[in-house]
Design a protein that fits this description.
Structural class: alpha+beta
Order of helices and strands: HEEEHEHEEEEEHH
Distance between the termini: 28 Å
Oligomer: single chain
CATH architecture of one domain: 2-Layer Sandwich
Helix content: 25-40%
Number of helices: 5
CATH class of one domain: Alpha Beta
Strand order of the largest sheet: 3-2-1-4-5-9-8-7-6
CATH superfamily of one domain: archaeoglobus fulgidus dsm 4304 superfamily
Length: 209
DNA sequence: GCGACAG
DNA sequence: ATCTTGTCGC
């Protein structure tokens, strides 16, 4: 692993990011997350029907990882196991929701964007903390606050069930759609259901190993 | 040089 | 992310 090389890859992938909506409808959303035990990464992918928030299918995958967690290069650590879990799904999904940032990233290519471009899928990043940029104002239950980076809006800080989460487009979705899908996918937790369920499943997967 | 720093 | 008991609150 070479950070300079990683940054080059991110820059190259960032050129392929599309920030326009390419879907007429978003019916199924896949949430992905992972849990760790030393170098073992346990990833989970959960497909949820947006209209009912019912789980359609869930799969897990384990993979040994050698890349440590480095802020800004999260994708290089978690990507392998997550893609493995996604490939095990038999169900189709329209869009990916990823734990981490989309374009709200130093190179404009966070984990959500990275996955979206590699898999050629619409994707959205949802994070519990900001990595870079700044929030303009304070989010209220009814009004999200803009995340500004290099003088442009790259996402929103959203108040979700009394907690603040950070939403940014990953690939093939607009800022407005990213916000809309996350809102529709959120029920009784701060994180949208697909992510919350993937988080629980990844933890369960690690335990039962 | 110092501080910040997704999971 | 993970290490971890009790504890405050609905």
């Amino acid at each position: 692993m070479n950070l300079t090389r990683f940054a080059e890859i991110q820059k190259k992938l960032s050129r392929r990011i599309r920030l326009e909506d390419v879907l007429e409808k978003v019916e199924r959303v896949a949430g992905v997350d992972a849990a760790y035990s030393e170098d073992a990464c346990f990833a989970a992918a959960v497909v949820v029907e947006l209209a009912t928030l019912r789980t359609v299918e869930e799969k897990t995958a384990m993979q040994t990882v050698h890349v440590p967690y480095i802020p800004g290069f999260f994708a290089f650590r978690e990507m392998g196991a997550v893609i493995k879990a996604l490939r095990r799904l038999r169900s189709s999904y329209d869009l990916l929701i990823v734990e981490g940032h989309g374009i709200a990233h130093p190179s404009g290519c966070g984990f959500a964007s990275h996955l979206g471009v590699l898999l050629r899928k619409p994707s959205i990043g949802v994070a519990k903390r900001l990595l870079c940029g700044s929030v303009r104002g304070i989010p209220s239950p009814e009004k999200p606050a803009e995340i500004v980076l290099n003088n442009s809006v790259v996402g929103y800080a959203v108040e979700s069930n009394r907690k603040v989460i950070y939403v940014s487009p990953g690939n093939m979705v607009s800022l407005a759609t990213a916000l809309e899908v996350v809102k529709k996918a959120t029920h009784r937790h701060a994180l949208p259901e697909p992510l919350h369920r993937a988080h629980l499943l990844a933890a369960r997967s690690k335990r039962g190993y």
